[in-house]
């Protein structure tokens, strides 16, 4: 029996819309790290909300199958499971970078010598933009207050000892660490529990960008003792382009009303929200960081996806993810020597559902390889100047697709000098 025939999760592929070529054949879609595929149930749920709007108007806030007033709470249990958190520690709201700004406003509080922020060099640009903006917002100079930690010379990945060493060296000058759960370019996954404990020993706050981690690797945000985290929902969470994001705030901050925040009406306690009082009555938990009511039509598809995660189970998904990524690794290492170099970690517990591959030759050759793969029906991601990112996602990708990707790569590399 083939790996796909023995796959206990094989049924989930049929619950997604699979992009197809002009002849109607499914593409090999290895781009879930950028935009996950559409759960078929998403269309029905979105249409139900449109029908409710059509039939009820404003009364849809309080009536119907899923009253909009409590819509974010429908997402709480699923997100809490994936985040490794308590329900009151997570909330669906806004988009990723908006959430980072909201949380940094509360947790980046430079005082005295403790003014610096540590991030990884080569962080996703939006994260760096947000951090630099926050430093400047406080009237400080990023040249003095931003620490960017790069891998050692000649290496692609960050060593955990070097990260911890950077935190310890910064010492009493360090106000905050903002770190990814999975680094977007290399796919390197980090030990967030260990990082959080190191940062807190240094007296710094710590938060995580989980854009490439949630729904991809197991998380334990509550046990990590991290202060906060934020994520988007359109990558491994399959909630669609521009989908509602999410945030985590550890429960020890649950009633810290003295924390500065960019408050808004929706962060008011639901029990008193509609009293329309001028004073802000902070909702308990992460919900207190909300500012606006959730965008229903960009939250509805996440309901469909979270239902699939609950049915599949993250442990089973992670086990399949490891095997799929190992199979893809075998295909790439079998290519002619020197053609492609995997820059992602080789140990399964140090990477997510992603292999990043540096192509031989010039940038132009690498782009031609990427374009030729697309012409052969393999959808993957190109990152300047020379990296292909391929993500076999366990909810909908197959071992046959991994083999098809390997064959396409071999053919393309043979055809492009």
At the third CATH level, what is the topology name of the largest domain? Aspartate Aminotransferase, domain 2
Mean pLDDT metric: 96
Number of helices, counting only DSSP H or I runs of 4 residues or more? 13
CATH class of the largest domain: Alpha Beta
- Given the helix and strand composition, which structural class is it? alpha/beta
Percent of residues in β-strands: 5-15%
- The total domain count is 2
Q: If strands are numbered along the chain, what order do they take across the biggest sheet?
A: 2-8-7-6-5-3-4
Helix content: 25-40%
Distance between the termini: 38 Å
User: Which outline best applies?
Assistant: globular
Low-confidence stretches: none
CATH architecture of the largest domain: 3-Layer(aba) Sandwich
Question: What's the total count of β strands?
Answer: 13
* SSE string: EHHHEHEHHEHEHEHEEHHEEHEEEH
CATH superfamily of the largest domain: Type I PLP-dependent aspartate aminotransferase-like (Major domain)
* Major sheet summary line: 7 strands, mixed
> What radius of gyration results from the CA coordinates?
22 Å
